[in-house]
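Re: the pair you flagged

First of the two:
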Amino acid sequence: MKHCMVLFFLLGVLGCHRNDKVKLQGDTDPSLADSLSEKPVTNSFAGVLPCADCAGIDTRLVLFADSTYSLSEKYLKKDNGTPFMTRGSYTVRNGFQKDKRALVVILDESNPQNKRYYVQYSAKPKYLYMLDKDGRPITSKLSYMLKKVK
């Protein structure tokens, strides 16, 4: 019963969490950069993801130890290269398809409109693969992969 109460409490807290999406103009606000740099980082991933109407999306995902994330997306050769910043919470689940040791990272699980899925396969721990909106692998010749950075 205690576990159920804790679970409902956590779900309530996550449900009240705001997802802030900010379009940054020019230089990043130093106070925002400072607040993010003070948090202990669990992992960072970066890469260029495919884009239907631009040259690609320069993406950087930072996962913090307190289960929050910061996602920077810059549309190449579009919108003057202005980055879009999204911050929110994430959860991690163990196992994906046949890989029982894979990790599935879910951004904003409690918000269906902003929810995103990524998987880190146990055989490729330096990479994070973007999944579709339903949490399934994306079938494409294009690369939906982010590489771990330090």
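Second of the two:
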Amino acid sequence: MYVFGGHNSFGNSNELYRLDLKTYTWHLLESDQSPSPRDKAVAWFYNQKFYCFSGFGPSISGHMTDNGAYVEDSENNVGDVLLPRAASSAARIGSDVYLFGGDGWILDTITLSWCHLDYLPSNQPRLWHTSTLSTAGEIIIFGGCCNNILDYSLENKISGEVLTIQLQPYSLLRLCLDDVYQRKSQTEELWEELPQPLCLWLQDKNKLEQIKISTTDDMDSDSEGELGVNEPGLACSIS
């Protein structure tokens, strides 16, 4: 596991550490071409290269690159150009990196070109959230703040909503499982007759739905929530 940058008692950092998950030993990786110090950036590894993008930090003057292994070529730029940002998230699928932080972008790490995801809803802004790749090839986004943190007249609105960005059509198996679950009142007694992986999938989905209902009920009884979370763990599919 690799950890890059962040903010410590000395200010913003551009140090890159590697954690050996077998020995739980940290190693500082030194380089003469480190990105500028930054906080709230996104980073990933691909083909033995370290990529870093965005974040808060001081002037990049004197540093070899602004975004680590990703170098903007102003004369041969391909695709749209992103606005500066921080506290976004990134998830990689193959050679493509999906960046989400209010709006959505895809970075082709082979051509270093950006493509804007214009089908995402404009009313789902998010920062300080997390995203990951699911086994079904979806981008799962959770948590974060969803209002303007620079408007001090507003209380921070922390989201417990789960966003699912569907990147390809569901398989026939997934469509069938969804249909079986939607007819739960008629099919639940027969789930255990299915192959075990399918039965477990339906049971796990049912548990998550029960948690969602319980969370919604708790939020109705206490709109602020125990930890200040003011949105239930709802799920939204974006396709």
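The CA atoms of residues 36 and 62 lie 9 Å apart.

-B.
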